[in-house]
Specification:
Elements: E1 13-14, E2 19-22, E3 29-34, H1 45-50, E4 55-60, H2 77-87, E5 96-101, H3 103-117, E6 126-129, H4 134-139, H5 148-158, H6 163-166, H7 169-187, E7 201-206, E8 228-233, H8 247-256
Parallel strand pairs: 3-4, 3-5, 5-6, 6-7, 7-8
Antiparallel strand pairs: 1-2, 2-4
Amino acid sequence: MRTQKPGLKGRLVPENRHLWRARRPDARHRIVCFPHAGGGANAYASWARTLPEDIELAAVQLPGRQNRIAENPAKDVGRLVKEIVADLRPVLSGPFSFFGHSCGSMLAFEVARALQVQGGPRPTRLFVSAQSTPEVIWAGPKLHDLPEREFHAAVLSLGGFDEEVSADQEVMDDLIPVVLADFQLWERHHVATVPALEIPITALVGESDWRAPLDSMTGWSEYTSAPFTAEVFPGGHFYLNEEGNDVPGFVSQTLLAE
């Protein structure tokens, strides 16, 4: 595979309210990434440097983080999905796929289904990462119901925060409310199995992820009428950030082989 050379061309930058993009005019596929709870589009910045030149990276930006830090986090899934569908239109031409990590998987699924209901365009594949199926979430204990100190501890146990960030109480005091808002949004959201997606779903999971173990993710097969596959990586909930796990490489190989 040819990889993108460092430089401005490979940088992930804002294009509109919900869309960041690392433009590659000659790419033949585009991957649109949806961030985890509390995360922003920049969570995928490193992908822009490692994906092959044949794949362009776009990422969804949500209110309450990074360049939208002054905004309140989303509280209504339907409204959020509608706004994202509208703002993603510039990158929904040609072949594209969706990748969502943790809560971002739920959002990616709902956006994909909204596009399908509207008659397209729709992604060629949905990657759901580190996210149990909706019925497992709804039936199980809710993190957002935990007392503040316990919620804070549970979030830190998932990983995803740099040591320097997690040790800075002032920074964490700003981050935790956004993370909590995202968990409230998705742990309260009912997701129906119908209409099923008409595209393949690939589930990615860390083998030691207590939040989304493999047996809690295989049910995603019920949310598509197309093939379902699963891929297990070493590590926990944020396995994709662990050294040796080439998640962008796996995603790109899957897409370019289709």
